[in-house]
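lol forgot to send this yesterday, sorry. C-alpha cells for the thing we talked abt
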C-alpha cells in the first residue's frame, strides 16, 4: 500500500472522534454530513509521509496540545501550510528548550508545591509567554503535568501563523471540525460556544496510553508494586533486569534528548547491573526504595510515582558521577556512584 493511500484512507481516526455507537453502515446513512471529505486526515505519527503538496498553501487543523501536536504545527508550516489551528482540550506548560533551564526545573524535589515552586512558573511565563499570557494553564501548576520543551511554537502564535483554540472537539464536518470553544478559566466539558473550524488537512495528536505489558509474567508486578510503583520508577521490583523505560509514569519533567538524559542514565544503570553481580539489588531492597519514596511523597496531588523528576529518582545517589559506566570496547567498569546506589537497594 502506498504512503499516499495510507494518508487518504485513514477513516478509523475520523470515526474515533464521533460520539456515536451505530454500526458503520448505519452510521454512514445517518451522519453523511459529518464526514470530512477534503482529506487528508492523518495521525501525528504519519507526519513523515505527509509531503509538501498535501499541505502547501492550505489550512491545517491539529487536534491536541502536547509535544506531538506542536511538532505537527512546526512540520506543516515548514512544508508550506498557509496557516495552522491547534485545538487544545487542556493547556500545557511550554518551557524553554534550554538544557540548563530544563535540568534546573527537573531538579525540583518530590513534586510538592513548596513556597519556591511558583518562582519557576513565573520565570517560565516571563521567558516564554510574553504576549500570549492567555495560554498559561489556569488549573494546574508546572509540576502537575508533562510540559513541552519548545522555543518556536509560541512565536508562531505571536506571528499569527498558528491560531490557538481551547476547546472540546464535538465532531468532524464536511468542511472541518466542530469545537466547543472555551475560555481560559473553563475546564474540559464545560459548555460554551460551538464553532466550526474550516480545515484542508486534519492532524490527530490526542495523546498516548501506557503500552501494554501483558506479555510479561504477572508475578513480576505483585500487588502494590505495579506500574508506576517500580524501583527507580522503571525497574520491576521482582527482577532488576526488567527495565520499562518511558512506560511507567504518566507525566514527567526530565531532559530527554539532552546529554545524559534519563533514557541514557537508565540504560547505563542496566548495563552496570548486567556486568557487575555485586551491584544487583534484591527484591526486598527495591521494594524498600518504593515504600520510602511513597512515604516521602504522601499527599501529593499526582500520586507518589505517577510524576517523574530527576531529583526524586537520583536523590538517593547524590554521589553518582555523571558517567555511570566506562566502556573501553572490551569491558565495563562500575563507578563508585553505582556501587552506592546498589548498596542502598541491597538489603
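and heres what i got for the seq, position by position
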Amino acid at each position: 500500500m502506498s504512503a499516499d493511500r495510507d494518508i487518504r484512507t485513514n477513516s478509523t481516526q475520523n470515526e474515533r472522534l464521533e460520539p456515536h455507537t451505530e454500526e458503520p453502515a448505519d452510521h454512514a446513512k445517518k451522519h453523511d454530513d459529518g464526514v470530512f471529505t477534503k482529506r487528508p486526515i492523518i495521525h501525528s505519527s504519519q507526519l513523515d509521509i505527509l509531503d509538501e503538496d498535501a499541505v502547501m498553501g492550505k489550512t491545517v487543523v491539529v487536534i491536541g496540545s502536547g509535544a506531538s501536536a506542536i511538532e505537527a504545527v512546526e512540520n506543516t508550516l515548514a512544508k508550506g501550510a498557509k496557516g495552522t489551528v491547534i485545538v487544545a482540550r487542556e493547556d500545557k506548560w511550554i518551557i524553554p528548550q534550554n538544557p540548563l533551564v530544563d535540568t534546573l526545573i527537573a531538579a525540583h524535589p518530590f513534586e510538592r508545591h513548596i513556597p519556591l515552586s511558583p518562582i519557576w512558573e513565573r520565570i517560565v511565563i516571563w521567558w516564554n509567554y510574553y504576549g500570549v499570557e492567555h495560554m498559561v494553564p489556569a488549573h494546574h501548576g508546572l509540576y502537575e503535568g508533562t510540559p513541552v520543551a519548545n522555543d518556536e511554537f509560541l512565536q508562531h502564535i505571536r506571528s499569527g501563523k498558528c491560531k490557538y483554540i481551547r476547546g472540546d472537539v464535538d465532531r468532524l464536518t464536511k468542511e472541518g471540525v466542530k469545537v466547543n470553544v472555551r475560555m481560559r478559566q473553563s475546564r474540559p466539558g464545560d459548555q460554551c460556544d460551538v464553532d466550526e473550524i474550516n480545515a484542508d488537512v486534519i492532524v490527530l495528536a490526542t495523546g498516548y496510553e501506557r503500552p501494554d505489558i501483558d506479555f510479561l509474567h504477572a508475578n513480576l508486578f505483585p500487588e502494590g508494586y505495579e506500574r508506576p510503583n517500580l524501583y527507580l520508577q522503571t525497574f520491576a521490583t521482582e527482577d532488576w533486569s526488567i527495565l520499562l523505560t518511558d512506560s511507567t509514569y504518566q507525566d514527567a519533567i526530565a531532559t530527554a534528548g539532552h546529554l545524559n538524559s534519563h533514557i541514557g542514565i537508565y540504560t547505563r544503570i542496566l548495563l552496570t547491573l548486567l556486568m557487575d553481580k555485586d551491584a544487583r539489588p534484591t527484591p526486598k531492597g527495591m521494594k524498600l526504595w518504593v515504600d520510602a519514596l511513597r512515604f516521602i511523597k504522601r499527599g501529593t496531588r499526582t500520586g507518589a510515582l505517577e510524576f517523574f523528576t530527576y531529583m526524586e529518582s537520583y536523590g538517593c545517589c547524590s554521589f553518582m558521577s555523571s558517567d555511570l559506566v566506562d566502556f573501553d570496547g572490551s569491558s565495563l567498569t562500575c563507578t563508585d556512584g553505582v556501587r552506592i546506589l546498589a548498596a542502598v537497594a541491597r538489603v
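Residues 1-32, 255-259, 316-347 have pLDDT under 50 and may be disordered. anyway ping me if u want another try
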